[in-house]
Amino acid sequence: xxxKQENASENSAAVIEDITxxxxxxxxxxxxxGRIYLGTPFxxxxxFRQAIIEQRTDNEEKRFINRLRYAGIVRERASDAFKWDNDxxxxxxxxxxxxxxxxxxxxxxxxxxxxxxxxxxKSLLVIIVVCKALRAGFSVKxxxxxxxxxxxxxxxxxxxxxxYINKLKACDVLVVEDIIFATFxxxxxxxxxxxxxxxxxxxxxxxxxxxxxNEWADDFPDKRMSSAVLGRFYEEALxxxxxxxxxxxxxxxxxxxxxxxxxxxxx
Length: 267
Description:
Elements: H1 2-25, H2 42-71, H3 96-101, H4 104-107, E1 111-115, H5 122-135, E2 140-144, H6 145-157, H7 161-170, E3 173-177, H8 186-199, E4 204-209, H9 213-218, H10 223-234, E5 237-241, H11 248-266
Parallel strand pairs: 1-4, 1-5, 2-3, 3-4
Helix pairs in contact: 1-2, 6-7, 6-8, 7-8, 8-10
């Protein structure tokens, strides 16, 4: 009997310790005082602990969804949605995709550049990466380059340019999708360069492109500025070249069409 009582006391002490840790994490110091739980039956303590864990999980999931929406991402995508093998991307350096997915490059404040034709999985890979970054506590802004160009012009017209630049500068990860589809006039190009320059070696910028980024930079109003932008893109960057890959969207569409046509023939 004495041994059972001793084990029960040890179990209760362990549960109380976990409860206090949970409340400390939630910044609720009064509820984190373990003395208020002394003498409570073990079964009640255990149920209370489970209720706290479930509530924290629900709260964290709600916060994640809010952060996802604030980042500009419609829904979370997990790693298992991105399927590839050694033959899928013939030009990708070995280990590059794994390095992107483990998101260590974000802690290292390195950039990520993903290039390739439409339908090869660029955006899917990037969304998975930034969802992982959000789960890890990093702040993210996900925008197309065209939207950034438009918003920079609007901010300048509304005398809020510095605030908008600072917002893009501040996030841990800035995703600039479809870089070659953005055109910049002279003033907007300078503003865009300011964003990239302020993030240089301080924050992670993710760039996707359906075409040659060098050719896009050639259209910059100032050639010296275009060279500086490219330098800040590529220096210390993880590059994933998806050229030579099959158009996954087209492949899925063909598969669905063939399946539908086969069903119609059977009928």
